[in-house]
Predict the 3D structure of the following.
Amino acid sequence: MKKFTVIIIDDERLAREEVKRSLAGLPEFEIIGEAKNYDEAKKQIEALKPELIFLDIQMPGRSGFDLLESLQEVPQVVFTTAFNEYAVKAFDIEALDYLVKPLREERFAITIERIRKRLLKTEIAHNDASDKQVFIKDGNKCFFVQLKDVYLIESADNYARLYFNNQKALIKRSLNQLEETLDSSIFFRITRNQIINTKYISHINNLEKGKLQVTLHKGGPLEVSLRQSVLFKSLNRI
Amino acid sequence: MAALYWGYLGYTGTGFSLPIAILHFFTDILICISITHFFRIISKKYCWHELKFQKLLIRIVPAVLLLAFVYMLISIAKLYVVHINFRPDFTQSFSSFYRENSVPIFMGGTRLMSIWLLAYYLYHYAQREIKIIQENARLNLIAKEAQLNNLWAQLNPHFLFNSLNSIKSLVVENPESSRRAIDLLSDLLRKSLYERDPTLISIEDELAMVSDYLELEKIRFEERLQFTIDVPRQLLSFSIIPFSIQTLVENAVKHGINKQSDGGTISIKVRDERSFVSMTVENPGMLNTDSASHGLGLKNLQERLCLQFHDKASFSIEQKNKMVSATIMIPTA
């Protein structure tokens, strides 16, 4: 049986024990790590690449949100907190689930159902390398952004602006850093300042001097730089 | 109001030919308003309206006589001038006119001035009463609000749920310790729910609660939380505001220990400083200068200190190296 890998992150040992105990009777979950602060958690997530994390929002030093923001690739997240649920929802995040401490058995069972569904879905889609998510905290709003939903990325100084669904958000990463984590078979850099998701191209025009102009499902036409036009043509044999 | 009153008196007081009646009407108003206004200025200057009844009486009896005398002089002078000018048959000399009219006009003036002064001070008295009632209501409201905030801060939901979560975990891991934790939590809850009435409690009782609280938090934070309590024996019976040290210690846990990955030590010191007793709570951490972070707890504590000791008690919080130090000073006398 395929096991889902889990890391538990909470600054209190007893609280981590509680999550462990709740997971104990569920053989499909394998706890591969435990962390009590930001640094430990970041190290472990990057090394062990878990599919799921249980994350306490309030931790000493840097919060659970800081942690998620710093990750190149964000696993599925279940937040655990001693705040009430409404207080957490005020953060405006689309997390897999929120759990309030102490964790109640019946409530935990619902969470487990959600996790199963979500993880199985991502497993089926696992061959699709673009099925990754990033976490963005833009002002008061938090987003888990599926990279496959992103159609355009523009650089904005040291940040990058992601356009997805009908929204946009600033991520604290340069375009170069982002390009490294993106699937190069789908994302293509059309200029120094723009990356597009080629799955969203609706049509392509030829401009003078061999330059290309692409139009996405959303937004106006975008001009491709000369060098990238040549590259794009050779990659796609047009 | 006063003008109408005087006007009415003036009108009823002089009732023959119309132009002369109108003349008397306006001059009477003018005279009375001037005299009473002059008195009002003096009364305001020396704050007579804030005096107690007896002290006020000593001042207003001679004042009434004096005002009545002034009223009499001016009125007689006015009457004489009016008579001379408007009554061709009037030939009386001023001195005989004065002798004839001084007593009745003086008596009338005394009556008028007494009524006016009485009305004036009654009005001020009523104003003062209303103000006092309003102020009392406001103080009451503040006290009630403080009580409520206190209850909320004390019940501190975050603390409560984290504690319950720890206890739940301990039940499996260390039943003895979980039993102890339930005892501590019960006592803290009982104190915050039922024992908030006394305005003052002894340092000994306050510190008993503080150490219960810290013992409970230590179960949760484990080795991350250490604490020391240092109080001279002779100060144990000294009276302080309940939940004062407790508020500081809760803040030290919430903003200090909770934010340090490796935790640290909270030290509580009580010292006799002659005219003051100082209570200091120190914890590792950085003082957040952001005013929004100065939560209900501290604001409430300051309000309670102010209500209890007026301006004699003080509260201060400062950063020393990597420690935050909060101090309450309570006067010994």
The mean pLDDT of chain B is 83.
